[in-house]
Amino acid sequence: MGINMIQKVICYDELTALVNRDLKSNKKLPRVLVVDVRNPGEIEKHGRIMNSINLPLKALDKILNMSEEDFFSEVGIKKGELGSCLLVTHCRSGPRGFKAAQILMEHGYTRLRIYSGSLLDWVANGGHVEKDTEENTRL
Questions:
Q1: pTM of the predicted structure, to 2 decimals
Q2: Contact present, 43 and 121 (Cβ < 8 Å)
């Protein structure tokens, strides 16, 4: 991981401020899209960060190469929304979040951060986890 990737790492407090849109912590919060890159079965079993979307790492490159129509059908949001948001990648424990950020950057998405603590850190710090089905991981 080059220095650019390290500079993109955020911690629990930063992600909490973004997810909760805490204007006391940051007066200029961008629109944020939390990208959970775990497999759908992991989300069903362990839950997800509120309002996150699921773009599994195994299929991320394929998903990003989809047409606008296929992307919307698969993900539930317009492909163009990825470029207009600050993307925050995470997985269960960290490594897949970094790999996903690399893939996103290769596709031209540069407004991104990596929550390296991932779901384990989120839960350990008292972050709320929603437990629901794969279908509800869409926006």
A1: 0.84
A2: no
